[in-house]
Amino acid sequence: MIFSLSLSQGTWIAKVEASDQTNSRQRVAYTIFSGNENHIFSINRHTGEIRVQKDNSLDFEVSPEIHLVVLADSGLQTAHCRVSISLQDVNDNAPQFEYSSYRTAVWEGQVHNTYIMQVFASDADSGMNGQIEYSILSGNHNEAFILDSVRGILATNVLLDREITPSYKLVLQAADRGKPPLSSTATVRVQVVDVNDNSPAIPPMEPVVIAENLPAGYMVTQVSANDVDLSSTITYSFSDNSSIRAPFAIDRYTGVITLTRALDYEEQKEYTLTVWASDSLHQTTGDVKVQVLDVNDNAPVFSQVSYQVELSELVSADALVLSVSATDRDSGLNGKIRYRLLSSPLQGFYIHPDNGSVFTNKALKAITNSNLIHLLVEARDGGDPMRSTVTSIDVLIVDINDHEPLFHQDIYTLTVPEDTPTDTTLLTLSAEDQDWSPENTHLDYSIVRGNEEGRFCLEVKMIPVENQMKHVGKLVLCNPLDRETMESYALTVSVSDRGTPPLNSSAIVMVTVMDCNDNAPIFSSTEYHAQVSENSQIGTRLVQVSAQDPDLGINSLLRYDIISGNSKGHLKLDPQSGLLVVNHLLDYEEDSKYTLTIRASDGGESSEHHKVAFTVVFITVLDENDNTPYFMFPTVNCSVLENLPAFTHACSVHAVDNDLGTYGQLTYSILSSCFMDYGSGSPERKEAFAIDPLTGDIHTRQTFDYERESEYCFVVEARDKGDKAATVRVQVAIKGVDEFSPIFTQKQYHFLLPENVKPGETVGYVMAMDHDAGVDGLVEYSFVNLSPFFSINKTVGAISVSGPVFRRRGSHINDDVVELVVSAGSPRLGSKTTTCLVFVNISSSAEALTGVPLDAHMLSLSVSLIMFVFVLAIFVGLVLRYKLKEAAIRKAATIAAHLNSSSGSISRSNGQSDISLQEMTRPSLLLTKRDIALPYNPSDSSGRGSAEGETAEDQEIKWINEFPCRKRDEPGKQTTEIPDSALPGDNISCHSIDVGPEHILAVNKCLVSGMPSTESLHHFKEEGGGEGLLPAILRVRDLEENVRTKGYPPLSEAQASEDCLSSLFCLEEQLQGSYNWDYLLDWEPHFQTLASVFTDIGMLPDEELQGGREDLAAESSCLMYPPPLITGVAQPGIRTVPPRKPGRVPTLSRKPSYRKYAYSPLARNTGLTPSAMTPTFSPSLSSLTIRTPSASPVVSETGVGGIRLDSGPLTASLLEAEIQV
């Protein structure tokens, strides 16, 4: 069922019926079982009619259909049915906007149909009742907006202008299409947002009137511009034209116009200011007129600061003096001026108050008797307060010249000497004038007659006369007087004033001149000229000078003298007549002219004051050809390179002619050749050279060829103007130039190397020829690339063998030929050269070991072999060194043990160990001589560890190998001295001595004459070595015992002092390579406790040394003096034993010694000797006690000196002397 919603309460809806088939009479009760929760419907219980119970609860929008379940109950059975009620929509809901009011904004000036906003409304109805249309009900003035009726979009319809309508209130309606339609409204407030679209406007302003005396900073007015735009910030400024000179400033933000300086009405009366107003986007202008109000701020100003006027002294009353004029920059009453006189002497003047004209009241002579009147005039304006200005008028009274000046006398007389100096005042003239003005009283003096020569002058000067300055005329002598010219003068002097017209008067001045000697003599000519031949005789007249003197009497007497130019006295002048004559023979070459200064003096000899005059006499000596030209050298040699062009300068010749005039001018010419065939030869040779006739420069006339002609010779003549001549021989050598290259006789040379050729033999010759002559034609030969087999003789070109020639094994035919490049050129540097090829066939030479080139093979083989041998030698040396060191240590221990066991069992052997003191001393003497002749210091070291190391040791071993010991032929012969020419540093003389049948071998004794320094022992001992050398200090029996038991002799005392093993005995078995020679080579210092060593030495008996000199001589002959130290390098780990200071040896004499090292060992070693060292040592141990050069008795300035043992009674005591260590 479909029902409309416009049902009222009680409206019948439907009726349901139910029946019971089983019992039709049973009443059925109806109820709504479900669907009626809101009790909208009601049902009749008995009839089943359904009616509307609550019509206001039906709402189509809430539930368009209602489903009811009706229950029928008969009491016994029940049944139900469904009742569907469809509601029909009724337009009962009006459209509703989302908001009742809206607010929005839009920029002004937007284009048509600009979107503003969109409104939404809803309607609960459906169908046509729910369709909404939008419209504007009110507030849309001028149809400014349009509204989309369907979508509700609000847009602009016209251009909005906020300045016209700043906001709109629109009433919008939303209506549905029901019948009747329902609607609702909403309010929309549209705010038009301002846009700066309007320019500011400056309203017209009235002119501003301000006084001109207002100060700077005064506010003139304020400009206010209007802008209809909101929140517009307006800034103000003047236009460029207004702000340049106008004295105004405007505030940028307030528009207040102020003064920057005070105004001046007189300068500008009105200002038009153009003001710019800007809102940062738009700009407008407006004019502000400022009118200046005049203030009486200017005083009247006269046209002149002061006035001056001149009036004649004859001016009468009411005469116009002058008109003054003043101006006032103010206007109106402030600029109206009136004049008045502030001062007027004796009321003699008055002024017109309006025009400023000044007039006289009286005649000037009645007003004042002076020449100046001072008036003051005031000009005042009519302003309030009044301003005035004062000026002065100086009235000058003009004097009328009505009086003439007069002299005090009519005639003046003077007497003046003629020698009066110029500028002398002769007379002072003065005149009087009754006028008083400066012009009329200014007097001028002048000479009007009698001064035609101008000798006098009148000077006008101001002098004080009676407290007044007065003009006077001084008669001054301007030019010298000359009595001889004028004896007296009559001068007419005039005086005149400067009035108008001028007045004058005159007087006569008589001047008489007195005579004086004031005139000097005057020569008739200022200079005289004369000529004389150099051959003129003495007394020849030359010239006569004469002078005149206008003075009279003694002042006119003249005397002539030569004051210069005649120092040699060749000329003579007569003092009275002035005649000049020759006084000596003349020579043109010596003096070609004379310049004489002649003086004429007046006044005679008795006068003290002379007047003199001078003249010059020029005497020219005429030359005579009395000198013959000559050349400085008889022959002139010069040279010219070949191939130079013609007119090349070769050389210059110069002849000397002692004549100085024209006779001394020489002309040069070539006469002939030095040889006879010059004229008959070829024209080229005859005209090969030319000479400059004036300068003597010789130049070539052709190009020369050195190979064709190398020398020219010709005779040059020098002739003067007098036909006197001289000749010289000129030899010209043509120098060659290397212009041809050498040419070999063959392009290639082939030589065959002969078999078994030896170095130096010639293989073949090359030859080249050079067409140049001289040095450039010589040919020298050389190899371009040096050859290892051949050399070439540079002069003859002989190619010879320089060394062994080898060729490669299995080489080809081409490899059997050696190619050489030979260069030929002259000896001169930079000369031209030529090369050629030389092929030498070496097929007959021996073949090389390898197939590589000979030179490369030899080089590689040599380098490889040397490196292998070097590495092998180093390895073997290191191994042997290590083995030998171990053996040496064992041997040293054996020696020390033997010393302790055999010290008491050594016996003397047949007297062969007797040693004399003389023989023991001899080696030391020889040593000293050798050291002086050949000083030797292998390393210059201190013996304490030199950096020379292995180098010094190897060098000394080399010396030992190169110079072995010499054997003595006669076994029983005594020891001989070693010559000074022995080997440097290691002179060893070997001898053989027969020690008796009980000896088992013959000992070669070597006496060494070189000992570098005994301090070597000191360093050696203190570094821990030398224990193996101790047997050398024993007696001869110790030597014999050691020879028997060990096979080698002990070291000598001298050797112990040297710390080296090169001085060991040269035994035959050692020379044959026994273990003792190995021990020598492997020797190095060893150390053990020195205390035990010296304890053992101290236990040795020394009574055997108490015998005669025979034992000493025998023992001395067995001792060895060592060569230089093998090595000065200390072994690692050896420590120095601190020494004691040596004691004094009373019986030993020594030579002066000097320091030999950079430092003294005494300063570095200050320890004490061990207590085992007792002062019981024999002299045989004395060398062990020597420590430093400064303490050693055997050190001299040249090295080690010898110890001199004096023979005699003191010998025994010397041998027993104790040497402290």
Core attributes:
disordered N terminus; Immunoglobulin-like; 1221 residues; 4-stranded mixed beta sheet; 74 strands; mainly beta; 13% helix; disordered C terminus
Tell me the CATH topology of the domain at 406-514. Immunoglobulin-like
Largest sheet: 4 strands, mixed
* CATH architectural designation of the domain at 406-514: Sandwich
Gyration radius, in Å = 79 Å
Q: In the CATH hierarchy, what is the class of the domain at 406-514? A: Mainly Beta
Principal-axes geometry comes out as flat
**Strand order, sheet with most strands:** 1-7-6-3
CATH superfamily placement of the domain at 406-514: Cadherins
Number of separate helices: 16
Residues in helix, %: 10-25%
Region (Disordered): 934-953
Protein name: Cadherin domain-containing protein
Domain Cadherin: 10-97, 98-202, 202-302, 303-407, 408-523, 524-631, 639-744, 745-855
InterPro entries: Cadherin, Cadherin-like_dom, Cadherin-like_sf, Cadherin_CS
